[in-house]
Write a structure and sequence with these properties.
It catalyses: 7,8-dihydroneopterin = 6-hydroxymethyl-7,8-dihydropterin + glycolaldehyde. This protein is an alpha+beta fold. It has four helices and four strands; from the N terminus they run βαβαααββ. The radius of gyration is 15 Å and the shape is elongated.
């Protein structure tokens, strides 16, 4: 098994329960962790046997910047589901999102949501 971790990807998106969040938008920070079933890429040294993380970056960016979700759980779950659909070498994916600007009246660094999906 190989694990690939992409940390602290920053995208601007329009997600949130409140209308002003979906209109004004804000920065969101993501971690995407993917596992593969085998280590074929480590043996072949060939990108076609690996997860192209530059492609995954653009894929996640496209979702975050062009779709809108009220709940972070729905956003990360959608990212997980779509990665499994598009990247056949990925066996499981965990996506974490951090939202620093939250509508909470008190000191807080961010709210983080994590979802995981696996192939059956």
């Amino acid at each position: 098994m190989t694990k690939i971790l992409m940390s602290n990807l920053m995208f601007y998106g329009f997600h949130g329960v409140y209308e002003y969040e979906r209109e004004q938008g804000q920065k969101f920070y993501f971690d995407v962790e993917m596992t593969t079933e085998n280590d074929k890429a480590s043996l072949t040294d060939d990108l076609k046997d690996a997860v192209d993380y530059a492609s995954v970056y653009q894929f996640v960016k496209e979702i975050v910047e062009n779709k809108r979700f009220q709940l972070l759980e729905a956003l990360t779950g959608h990212i997980d589901d779509e990665i499994l659909k598009v990247y056949s070498v990925v066996r499981s994916v965990t996506t974490r999102v951090r939202k620093p600007s939250v509508p909470i009246s008190g000191p807080i660094d961010f709210v983080q949501v994590e979802t995981t999906r696996s192939r059956k």
